Amino acid sequence: MRLVVGLALKDLVRDRMQLVCNVAVLAGVLVPLLVLLGVKNGVYDALIGRLLSDPAALQIDTSGNQRFTFQDADEVRSWPESGFVTLKTRSLFDFVNVREVGGRGKRDAILVPSGTGDPTLGGIALKEGQAVLSASLAEQLNLNKGAEIQVITQAEDRPRQLAVSLSVAAILPTESMGGRAVLAELSVLDLIEAFYDAYALPEYGISEGRNLAQRAAEFEGMRVFASDLTQLAQLQTRIEQRFNTRTEARTAEVEGVLNLGRNLDLALVLTACVAAVGLAAALVFGFWSEVARKRRVLATLALMGLSARSLWVFPLVQALACGGLGLLVSFALYAVAAQVATALFASGMPAGQALVSLSISETLVICASVLAFVAATALFAARAAARADPAIVLREGAA
Fold first, then answer.
1. Could you tell me which residues are beta bridge partners of residue 148?
2. What's 30's DSSP letter?
3. In whole angstroms, what is the distance from residue 35 CA to residue 330 CA?
4. Angle formed at CA 60 by CA 57 and CA 61, multiple of 5 degrees
5. pLDDT of the residue at 373
6. For residues 128 and 187, is the Cβ–Cβ distance under 8 A?
7. I want to staple 326 with a disulfide (CB 3.0 to 4.6 A). Which of 16, 26, 41, 398 is the partner?
8. Residue 254 · residue 234 · CB < 8 Å
9. Positive or negative CA dihedral for 26, 31, 33, 38?
């Protein structure tokens, strides 16, 4: 076997023209496909990355006058499509004033129900008595992490305003939350709603009003995040059907990007299939003609005692050698093409995002597939080589 492998490689090196032709055919087909796949990955990853960098892409908000309970939130939270889930109080009471404890300046802001696990927080743990501020609000009030703030609200029919003290756990970047916003646990929003509903809050110095223990735990809406982008549409439909309510989400935008990815994959597969047919035809006839041209050499090897199985190896080794060299040349040309494409068209890409990219797993799959494809096309030539008859040598020699 080692003898046949060595002879096949030496013969391939000696007959350089056939080697160059096969490598050129492989590179001519592979390089455009590699560039197309790389561009598809770069553009699609940029679009998906842009959506993933905006947590609001996963968010679903119920709308309308609806009533939800803690049991409803637990039910939605148990669904496999769901990620983070929290209830919402009436939107009428979301507007508050915020100031630093001991400070004079204050700003109006929106109070958003949140908690640990909220994608908007980007992994920040939100504990009881803490809040996370948007960058705009923190900048206008000159607040930093660890600052003590007061969330203040007042109602016309209440003798006193309500001031809830919170500690700033973190400041969100602008891309995570725009405008002036305070993200706090649901209990803070529920407390403010109870204040507006004229319940007594003795721990905050508000003794007049109804007994808070008699208050029913009901909420106007839910703020839900899908577990990933592919689950967003299904989760939105499920919420609407289960609770007979309208919802708001960026489903159309997300579905558009996902459909674009599927369409690009389909177009790439169709292109690869058409290219594979042409490549197979070129390689089959190339390897077969090479075996036909070397029939006397193969017959002589058979006459020397090599088995038919060994003769099968001869064209297979040459084909795999051509395939390996073709892959090296193709990836080298792909790297050059990627650099040129990046220099020409990368200005519209996000910072740090490559226009053309191939993952290591994709590269390994491509290499294995090409080598398997080349070996499969060489089987026709191997079959012809195995049929080489030593008697041919005698007849041709006599002629």
1. 167
2. H
3. 10
4. 130
5. 86
6. yes
7. 26
8. no
9. positive
Residue 61 identity (one-letter amino acid): D
Do residues 41 and 70 both lie within one domain? Answer: no
Nearest to 206 by CA among 197, 191, 195: 195
- Domain boundary pick from 225, 250, 275: 250
**Whether residues 350 and 372 fall in one domain:** yes
DSSP string, 362-383: HHHHHHHHHHHHHHHHTHHHHH
Residues 246 and 286 in one domain: no
pLDDT of residue 50: 77
Radius of gyration of the chain (CA): 35
119 and 8 in a single domain? The answer is no
Q: What is the mean pLDDT of the chain?
A: 83
What total of structural domains would you count in the chain? 2
All residues at 6 or more sequence positions from 257 whose CB lies less than 8 Å from its CB, including other chains:
44, 47, 48, 51, 229
Q: How far apart are CA 240 and CA 232, in angstroms?
A: 12
In this structure, what DSSP letter does residue 350 have? P
- Residue 393's identity, in one-letter code, is V
SS3 48: helix
Q: 296-332 pLDDT, tens per residue?
A: 666 666 656 556 566 667 677 777 888 888 899 999 9
| Domain final position from 250, 268, 291 | 250
- Domain of residue 286 covers 2-52+256-398
Interstrand relation of 95-100 and 148-153 (parallel, antiparallel or unpaired): antiparallel
Low-confidence ranges of the chain (pLDDT < 50): 397-399
pLDDT at 75: 95
Q: According to the model, what pLDDT value does residue 398 have?
A: 47
Q: Is 246 in the same domain as 349? A: no
Report the candidate in 202, 221, 222 with the shortest Cα–Cα distance to residue 211.
202
